[in-house]
Amino acid sequence: MTNYERLEVRGRGxxxxxxxxxxxVAVWLWMSGAxxxxxxxxxxxxxxxxxxxxxxxxxxxxxxxxxxxxAPLGLVVVLGGAVTRLSPLAAxxxxxxxxxxxxxxxxxxxx
Length: 111
Prior knowledge:
Largest sheet: 2 strands, antiparallel
Distance between the termini: 44 Å
Radius of gyration: 18 Å
């Protein structure tokens, strides 16, 4: 099990109260950003018919639709396996892509 007392966030230990608060604020901001990204993606999927036309035919999803539907699973595998080796920018980009693609996956079968 991880010893959270020894974790470091931007050079600050989590052993003190200020470090814990900074850490939780950072987590809250990242999660809020992901929710806003997902909300924007859901709005776009609901209000822009060209997105559905690119991903779906009358019979169901086309190959691009399947790729977008299953892409979040691939991103979870990549992030889970490489999160300690990724640069912060690369990890943030993958997290943003996941937030956007997870929205499309959840609205994919609405049609």
